[in-house]
Design a protein that fits this description.
Elements: H1 2-30, H2 57-64, E1 79-88, E2 95-104, E3 107-108, E4 113-123, E5 130-131, E6 133-134, E7 148-156, E8 160-161, E9 167-173, E10 177-178, E11 183-195, H3 206-210, E12 214-224, H4 229-255, H5 261-275, H6 281-300, H7 305-314, H8 320-332, H9 340-353, H10 357-364, H11 371-382, H12 391-406, H13 413-433
Antiparallel strand pairs: 1-2, 2-9, 3-8, 4-5, 4-7, 4-11, 6-10, 11-12
Helix pairs in contact: 4-5, 4-6, 4-7, 4-8, 5-6, 5-8, 5-13, 8-9, 8-10, 11-13, 12-13
């Protein structure tokens, strides 16, 4: 009997123990875990998982420097704008149309360096880009004669120059550029930020493009009054025909004999075509056709001398008035002497062509003994040519000089006369050395 009582008591105690164990386990599950100790002052945040979204530069900046309120530097896109404006000439005070070019945005650099800005122009009115030439030396690319404006930005330190608002690059009068044609045109204006070490390279040098730090482009619509170089090309071929007409008109006026000019005009035509050696074949062919047509017309009809002079000047082709005067001087010579009455007619012709008497004196003394060699050296000095160069280098130099000076039409008479003399020198040297 006692044995059964002990067994029963043991079972009761075992059940109570199991019940207490299960009750304490439930209580432990319901109690929250203790909070972790506060982080130390130099503690780092736990690393983020690879699956988390990347943080922006501003988030990283603020997490790294929580006590700073200055945002990280940002570089806005490099931009350019062009605006039409009226410019005043310093000497005459006259107003003339032009454009102002501004840029803004950031420029990033890998190291501290001097930075320059270069502005170029192309004509995209007819689809493909066509070059725009400059009429003043300071805007001309040294090798091509194309328009280029260079300005210094200054020293830029790493990581770069942040956006500081619109900054003026320069102003450009429309009279200083020469597009293919006049009238309404669309110019593509580009601004390049390049290291100053390469900013002096020609605009066609690939190193200039490969080394640029920033670039921006804009199309700008303009109305150009000055005759374009394509139109000037048409004017050149017609002006050559008018020189032929002028020679016949002068022979009729001074000698009452138009046929006196035939042989001289034919020699001048051949010489003029020889001077065009190396130029576009189409232009040479068109010039030949124009001169032949003028020659045939002058043989059949009587030309008025004043009308011929006025029409020749209307084409505004540099050097053609001088060519006409020189041809008339050759017609006037009789055994290397120009009669006094004919000299009076030549002086009147100078006035009609807007030339000074010094031009007449140069043409009249051109056949003096030993003058040819001296004249060649004078012409070479005028255009920066060394006559000892090989023919290929001479040809290249003369072509470059012709492109440079033929695109200029200054208002100053003295400067215009100097440019005309350079073009004459180029023509003589091309005839004799090419």
């Amino acid at each position: 009997m006692n044995v059964y009582a002990y067994i029963a008591a043991a079972l009761v105690l075992a059940g109570v123990g199991v019940y207490l164990y299960l009750w304490r386990k439930d209580k432990a599950d319901e109690t929250p875990p203790p909070s972790p100790p506060p982080p130390r002052g130099n503690a780092r945040p736990p690393p983020t998982s690879k699956s988390s979204a990347p943080k922006s530069a501003e988030q990283v900046f603020r997490e790294t420097f929580p006590g700073m309120r200055v945002p990280p530097p940002t570089f806005m896109p490099f931009r350019i704008r062009a605006e039409a404006c009226q410019l005043r000439e310093k000497v005459s005070g006259e107003q003339q149309p032009g454009l102002r070019i501004d840029v803004c945005g950031g420029i990033e650099v890998a190291k501290e360096m001097e930075v320059d800005l270069i502005v170029t122009m192309e004509d995209v009115t007819d689809g493909g880009p066509q070059p725009v030439y400059a009429t003043q030396d300071r805007y001309q690319d040294e090798q091509t004669g194309q328009f280029v404006l260079r300005t210094t930005m200054g020293k830029v330190t790493q990581p770069g120059r942040p956006d500081s608002g619109w900054t003026s690059v320069g102003v450009i009068p429309f009279t200083n550029i020469r597009a293919p044609k006049s009238g309404g045109r669309i110019l593509r204006i580009s601004c390049l930020a390049v290291p100053a070490a390469i900013s002096g390279l020609t605009v066609v040098d690939e190193r200039l493009r490969s080394g640029m730090l920033a670039a921006a482009t804009i199309n700008f619509e303009v109305t150009l009054v000055r005759k374009g170089y394509v139109e000037q090309r048409f004017a050149r071929q017609n002006a050559a025909g008018l020189v032929v007409c002028l020679s016949f008109a002068f022979a009729t006026h001074a000698f009452r004999d138009a046929h006196r000019a035939e042989s001289f005009a034919r020699v001048w035509m051949d010489r003029h075509l020889a001077q065009m050696k190396g130029e576009d074949d189409g232009l040479v062919a068109q010039t030949r056709v124009s001169m032949e047509a003028a020659f045939a017309m002058a043989q059949m009809t009587k030309s008025d001398l004043r009308v011929a002079c006025r029409e020749l000047l209307a084409y505004e082709v540099a050097g053609m008035a001088q060519e006409g005067l020189g041809l008339c001087v050759e017609i006037s010579r009789s055994e290397e002497i120009i009669p006094a009455d004919i000299m009076i007619e030549l002086k009147a012709l100078c006035r009609e062509l807007g030339l000074g008497l010094d031009a007449l004196q140069r043409h009249a003394s051109a056949s003096a003994p030993g003058a040819a060699a001296d004249d060649d050296q004078e012409c070479a000095t005028l255009v920066g040519l060394d006559l000892r160069w090989e023919s290929r280098r001479i040809r290249r130099h003369l072509l470059d000089q012709f492109m440079k000076w033929n695109s200029r039409h200054p208002k100053d008479p003295a400067e215009r006369e100097t440019i005309t003399r350079r073009l004459e020198a180029i023509a003589k040297l091309r005839q004799r050395y090419l």
